Fold each of these.
Amino acid sequence: MAAQDETTGETAPPRAAAGGRPPRIVVFDSGIGGLSVAREIRAARPDAEIVYVADDAGFPYGDREEGELIARIVDLAGRLIAAHHPDVFVVACNTASTLVLPHLRAAQTVTFVGTVPAIKPAATTTRTRMISVLATPGTVKRDYTRALIDTYASHVEVTLVGSTMLARLAEDHLSGRPVEDAAILREIRPCFRRHGGRRTDRIVLACTHYPFLLDHFRRLAPWEVEWIDPAPAIARRVVQLLGAVPGGRGRGAGRAIFTSGADPSPALARVLDGFGLTSARGAP
């Protein structure tokens, strides 16, 4: 078995699309944050068929009890796999990946690619030896996150910041609802630390919702830092698994499924359309 990737949490061997057809990829998240990952996958494999699944009926995952969350995701993933037969199943959610990936792999044979905090890239590139991990409270408390720090960042000062509001604020932003700068600043301010003449210079975006607020983060930050988004690395891993785009293929189909059965707002529908996704009710 391949060594585990510290950005994607993926261990399974490559698996080509069946019958020479364009690959089918399920991208799964608790809400619409995983669209940041779907966007990068679409750019890297424009021919792929993407089934984006937002478990908005279960959102937010960070507030759920672990046993309940494991059972929910394993059951939902099983139904999605049976319905859509994906070549790759991307868990585009840090909270879910750091908790549920071993259970998913034990239950299914499909190739899973997870999303785990990009602590190694931050720790290997920091110049001040001060990094922060901005995540949901669930991701912050996971043993998986602590193990990544022990393995890759024991030589640097790591600040873990568990935000209770940013995922909701990102959902509001993408859905066209107003978000207040003050609310965002309250959530990111603890990431910025000073110590002995040094200060934080790398912040890991350990929730796929957060890149959609990146313009706000950059504008509100007390000083310039490098914000590390794992989505490009996830897309690269998907391409490694599926191969490069064959010649002569056009843009692949795409749809977005919301488990609540609710229709997206007009603003979100425009975002989905920009990613080549049409909305569908229910899951699977």
Amino acid sequence: MFHNSPTDARARPLGRNFMVRALLPWDMFFNAMTRRKTRFLLSALDDHLLKDIGISRGEIDRIARDTAGEPGIARTARQPTPTITQLNQRRTTMTTKTATSQKPARTPVAMNGVDTPTLLATINAVGGQPELAKFQFRAKSRWISGTHSQSTMEGFFGAGGEHKHKAAYKADGDHPAVLCGVDNGPTPVEWVLHALASCLTSGIANIASARGIKLRKVESTVEGDIDLRGILGLSDKVRNGYQGIKVSFDIDGDASPEQLEKIIMQSKARSAVFDVITNGVPVTIKVKTPALA
């Protein structure tokens, strides 16, 4: 009887028209627009991830609340406001009505060494606060002798602040004797293969855990073909880098071969290193030299 009265407008669902919103105080109008933006972000998250791993929107919100005290981005982000929670409850109700024949939503648990609830809470937090997604990783390298150099990865920026690894990780790069080095470490191009393999493998573990699939084995072989005539300046028709890279996986887990293959393909689709290698990235070089006397 009183549903159309202006004083009850706050309890109306998101479907209310613009004219009714215009009658509200400006602070309520602003909150309504904020909810529309949040709804868009959550919808995008559903399309790109939730459908893929088979977890409901309400389940991720519950995980986000349960892991509010966990470290990482999930803790950095503010928890959803009651208004957003009401929106998500409404979305969950609508989903239940249209999918009553589907099996109940699966509750994610930690597996494969992955803290799956915290992983999903992190995704939820970044979906609500995209500024937390901005990261910058850094490596500092120094020449030692000949073709031998050493890089150190110690700190990085992310989730709105500076962070440090639990240790300053070091990586040596060199050339083997056949390439005029002393073999104090893998060649730089071999480190590229390692980066690709480790990025794809970590993605496989995360995606399998989010889908509730227990892994027993994940092994990969990465091969890169290169023609040294480019590096040595013997031909301007030969590129300096790899002419092609092949990756093969040997994987076993509690899932069908088709499901395991889909996990690998999804990891490839979301791999940062695969993206860098296949699409390239702008690189700038600055030079600092001692001042001339």
Amino acid sequence: MSHVFSLCLSRSLAFCFFCLSFMALCAEAKESAETDALAQPLSSAEERPQELPPGTLAARTEKDQATNNNNLSVEKIELVNPTHQQKQEEAQAMAQISGSTLPGIIDHLLIRPLPEQKMASHPHMSIAICYPSIGRSDVDSDIRQWAADIADAFERNFDYEILSAEMGRDVDAALNKDIELAADYSVSRPSSKALSITFHLWNHVGGPHANLDVVTLNYSLINGQRLHFVDLFKKPDEALRLMSEWSRAFLDQRYGTGRTQMLLRGTEPEVENFSSLTLTPSGISIHFQPYQVATWEMGVQTVEMPLEALASARPLTVFWER
């Protein structure tokens, strides 16, 4: 009996030692596989997050979007079943809303209906202004306040009774269309010391077509202040003269119609004619509103002017890092 017991005990101990050895071998194999996986270089598709085209204003809905990552990207998802397909589509939509292809920029959407007493009879009235934040509190606060002021002004100045008196019987037919203010933007970085935001503001309150205004906000990233025309040149009067001559020659050559009265009047060397300037890495873009230098059909006219052509106006070249 004791012989049998000793035999069973020895076999049990042997089996235990075998199990422990097998577990150790498995753990070692797993650790080796993980090490090899970490050491293996990623493929080009896995190295870079997928970037998506910027979203349109129509895709940005209902509320401001923000993210801890200023440049939201979409991780690579293997399309092995419909669930993964749905996740990828949702991730793409989020990237479009947040403006993922603009590094360091987050999109926001100020959206509101007009007051209830006006909405009651005309439910298609709305305000939707898309604007950016760059992660700098002083600049972001100014942009946000500018967008709110634009919305407030449109809401305050839209008066159904005044519009009815001006348009007479045609007002109801006109207001069957959407009454809206909408805005989108683009960003230009002339250097690390400055930033330009160009807004396209569309408003429709009846009439054959919407109205369009191009508004630019230029900022010094040195002190966070908004830059006005006189802040860009040591000789602003000389800058106006140079811009006037350059724009007239450029637009005359573009259309070959001669220097019409509309063109001459819209390019007089006055600040109000050159109030919409975008700073670019090579110089400035001058934006002329519809009807300023050409008919509505011609659209917004933009004239590119190199910084060298403005040399005698002594531009503050620090904003271009020249």
Amino acid sequence: MTWLALSAICSLIIANILRYARQHDLPFLPIMTINYLQAALFSVFLCFGNEAMEITRLDVPMGVLNSVFYVGGFLLYFEAVKNCGISIAVSVMRLSVALPVLPGVFWFGETLSFYRLIGLVLMTAALISIGHFSLSRVSTRAMSWLLLLFLVIGCSSVVDKAYNFYGKTGKNLYLAALFFTAFLLSALLTRFRGLSFSARIVGTGLLLGIPNQATSLFLLMSLSSVDSVVAFPTLAISVLSGSMLCDRFIWGEALTREKFFLIILSMSSIVLLNLG
């Protein structure tokens, strides 16, 4: 669980850097371009001198495939935010952990015990209540964006699980292919939209790069010893709870009774998932 905890911490670092960027009206696409380049270079650096690394034919193709989901998920997230708000978009993005849980049980032979099932139910209740999800508030167009976001983010997690199951020790090569391809795609989109790079944008992107790579690397390492039925939901709900605490102690937002209840509900779901 140590690797999973480190992945959650890095995810929280990313969330707070992105919040800083949003507060200063920095365009996200150029930031993500620099971030992906930094993450790719860091992954390549970790490949050198790693004599234990075993390269397979899956490393690069699966990394390239997942890069499409990474960039697609990023674009869909901001489209969903525009159509239905941050809380609902984040909730749907976190609920996408249901997708890797299903093949974990039905394809990779993981166990969905009674405790884990109850933990997943509690996690789902916590995430849905964050967004106050109701059909009356979400248009058909917005529902389409949310469904696409759910599928793309979920498929990215499925690819991570599949690579960890079928691959060997070439995780950094897989991540190098992933982030370098994501860099190329986001650079093309940045060019197409006529966006430019400033010193603050480059600096923010460089700050994001290493924790972004570390989040993915630590998650892959945790999947070697923790079932995806536990790993993905635990990571999602930990980041959600941690984000609310960061809002209180870093950004000065009030910790309402509703948020406190959600943190307790989230922690309860994590305990049940790991009891299983």
